[in-house]
Amino acid sequence: MKTLYLAAVLAALTASAASAETIGISMQSFDNNFQTLLREGLSARASEVAGVNVQVEDAQTDISKQLNQVNNFIAAGVDAIVMTLTDTSAAPGVSEAAAKAGIPLVYLNLEPENVDKLPEKQAYVGSKETDAGRLAGEAACSLLQEKGKAGAAQVYILMGDLAHQASRDRTSSFKDALAAGDCKGVTIADEQSAAWTRTNAMDMTTNWITAGQPIDVVFANNDEMAIGAIQALKASGLSMDDVIVIGIDATQDGLAAMAAGDLDATVFQNARGQSASAMDAAVALARGEPVEKQVMVPFELVTPKNMADYASKN
Predict the structure, then answer these.
(1) Most buried of 6, 119, 188, 193 (most Cβ within 10 A)?
(2) Rounded to the nearest 10 degrees, what angle do helices 223-235 and 198-210 cross at?
(3) Phi then psi for 289, rounded to 5 degrees?
(4) What is the pLDDT of residue 6?
(5) Short-list 86, 132, 129, CA closest to 107
(6) What pairs with residue 125 in β-bridges?
(7) How far apart are CA 58 and CA 167, in angstroms?
(8) Which ranges of 17-161 would DSSP assign to H, the alpha helix?
(9) Residue 130 near residue 168 (C-beta atoms within 8 A)
């Protein structure tokens, strides 16, 4: 697995443009902040490559709607498809349909179930999700040690959609990181899916608070859910000095929460890097050029100490 050298790839694609290509794009949801960053990144990258047009559709987290979009792209004869999966288990069927039609396919951000068995002219662009959970777990442990709670903390986890490998990998690697170090004595008090959304996370955290058990750490699989947890904690009158909250993505809203002193750490997921690499891969495949089967863009830990470095990256 290699990271594409984006400037070189862009130059090559621009130079080799001979005729217009249409790239069909199906996004998991326009309402999700990080998916919006990816969508904007795809369109921005396409505008930089000569002869490329995009058709962008919103699956609205509905797998049936997304499969219809893919079928419509195939029927229309697009030159390539890029998609962020609503349900990663649907990937084998999508891959088969695209391969049968001879249309290149690039999965973006959410790892397809068949990632190790992708047909020819198909690729996955994302980041290693276990790295995100590990970085978050290590940060949580370090903060617990500073508070003298490394041996007896109560930890709560807000997971994304359980149909997504990212949710499972981020959660399991977070717990593994705690268990592997000085925080192996902490208790995972509960872990529930809030489906990536702020509102669901707020409701779930409110339920935990109402139950009356101590909350030392809330780890959310993305910043949106971390912010929902923060809103619930503050609405209940709890001091943010007493609760460690960690998210993933380093979105602008997440960084704003960090600047306010509410979010203790997040993990930068490079939306621009992922979307640019995905568009480059789709165009290259449409033009008969080889690409890596898996292109991985690194995660990076963000804390109040280095958050200024990430102010304009997502």
Answers:
(1) 193
(2) 40
(3) -100, 145
(4) 44
(5) 86
(6) 108, 295
(7) 21
(8) 33-48, 63-76, 91-101, 129-147
(9) no
Cα separation, 71 vs 87, whole angstroms: 16
Check if the beta carbon of residue 311 is closer than 8 Å to that of residue 255.
yes
pLDDT value of residue 151: 86
Question: Mapping DSSP to helix (H, G, I), strand (E, B) and coil, where does residue 83 land?
Answer: strand
Consecutive 10-residue runs of the chain (314 residues): their mean pLDDT? Answer: 44 51 96 92 94 95 96 98 95 97 96 95 96 98 96 95 91 97 95 96 98 96 98 96 97 96 97 96 96 96 97 88
Torsion of CA 167, 170, 175, 181, to 10 degrees: 180
Instruction: At 238, give phi and psi (nearest 5°).
Output: -80, 145
CB atoms within 10 A of CB 210: 10
Are the CB atoms for 123 and 106 separated by under 8 Å?
yes
Structural tokens at position 221: 């699989």
Query: Using an 8 Å Cβ cutoff, are 265 and 301 in contact?
Result: yes
Residue 19 has what pLDDT?
59
In the chain, where do the E strands start and end? 21-27, 52-58, 80-83, 105-108, 122-126, 154-159, 187-193, 217-220, 244-246, 266-268, 294-296, 300-302
Strand partners, 259: none
Q: Which two tokens stand for residue 132?
A: 């995100």
